[in-house]
Design a protein that fits this description.
By secondary structure, the protein is mainly α. It has 12 helices and no strands.
């Protein structure tokens, strides 16, 4: 009697069943450990809340808005670098490196800054940048309302003052990044140390932004965990962009052209947006764990 060996389909099905059984065992064990350790239970709460609100989808939409916000920003930078280069009698390339602009946009900004129409670009770019910042602020408010499930009628509005305030905080982010880039260019070792120290200022700036966004009835201390997460994460994104994404996109510029640069820029913006959503999710989940009543969601 000939024993027939199992076919490819049977072996694949057996492996799938074994993988499913192993996943179920790991899930059961994780639930048991979750009941024993409060820290692990908090991590599960954060992950569950992120999945519930669709954190990845929200971050994608936010990154899309950031991309369009970066267009008038680049226009203003182009004009500003050209004016600064004329005032200092330096080339736009030297002005770009002096301001710490490197990586994905420094080469394009430096070449475009040679244009004789940069004053027109500055006059057009500033109003467009304010309008795009107001639109970005509106999206940030909506994002935090979704994460915090804050359905109150009184929510922050994208007023002109709030728009200018957000733009000033973003400029402060760029100033810190420029300083870190200049430090890395001057001396790689101490420059990396300076970049790590900047985690605290990044966290402080994002805490100021978070206070102006919907956060239910949470106090400023309740927003510190998300601010620290954002500060550490944004620094990691900066280092990855400076040492990985930017050199790779520049190296492949001859192959992929502007599409490669745009893809790298969108990827970096998605990481930033994901950090913003994750910081809000972390704060909301931890705040709700402080008391049963805070976990009740309003349906009014």
């Amino acid at each position: 009697m000939v024993v027939r060996s199992p076919g490819r389909r049977e072996r694949a099905k057996a492996r799938q069943e074994a993988f499913r059984a192993r996943a179920e065992r790991l899930s059961a064990r994780a639930q048991v450990e979750r009941s024993r350790h409060a820290s692990l239970d908090a991590i599960f709460d954060v992950v569950d809340r992120d999945a519930e609100v669709g954190g990845g989808i929200i971050a994608g939409a936010l990154a899309y808005r950031f991309f369009f916000w970066s267009l008038p920003l680049a226009l203003v930078l182009v004009a500003g670098l050209g004016v600064a280069a004329d005032a200092n009698s330096t080339s736009p390339e030297e002005a770009a490196h002096a301001l710490g602009l490197a990586g994905l946009i420094s080469s394009s900004v430096a070449s475009a800054a040679k244009s004789s129409t940069r004053w027109y670009a500055l006059l057009v770019g500033v109003p467009l940048l304010l309008f795009a910042t107001r639109s970005l602020l509106r999206v940030l408010i909506g994002t935090h309302r979704l994460v915090w499930v804050d359905l109150r009628k009184r929510t922050p509005k994208p007023t002109p003052v709030a728009t200018v305030r957000l733009l000033a905080l973003v400029v402060a982010f760029f100033a810190l990044t420029a300083g870190a880039g200049a430090a890395r260019a001057a001396s790689p070792g101490p420059g990396v140390l300076v970049s790590l120290i900047l985690v605290a200022p990044y966290a402080g700036l994002w805490l100021l932004v978070s206070l102006r966004l919907p956060h239910a009835d949470a106090g400023w201390r309740d927003l510190i965990p998300g601010a620290l997460l954002f500060g550490a994460g944004i620094e990691l994104v900066q280092l990855v962009t400076a040492y990985v994404l930017a050199p790779y996109s520049i190296e492949k510029a001859g192959t992929y052209g502007a599409l490669g640069t745009a893809a790298a820029l969108l990827l970096g913006l998605f990481f930033v947006a994901r950090l913003m959503v994750a910081s809000a999710v972390l704060n909301a989940a931890l705040w709700e764990r402080q008391g049963p009543r805070r976990g009740e969601r309003s349906t009014e």
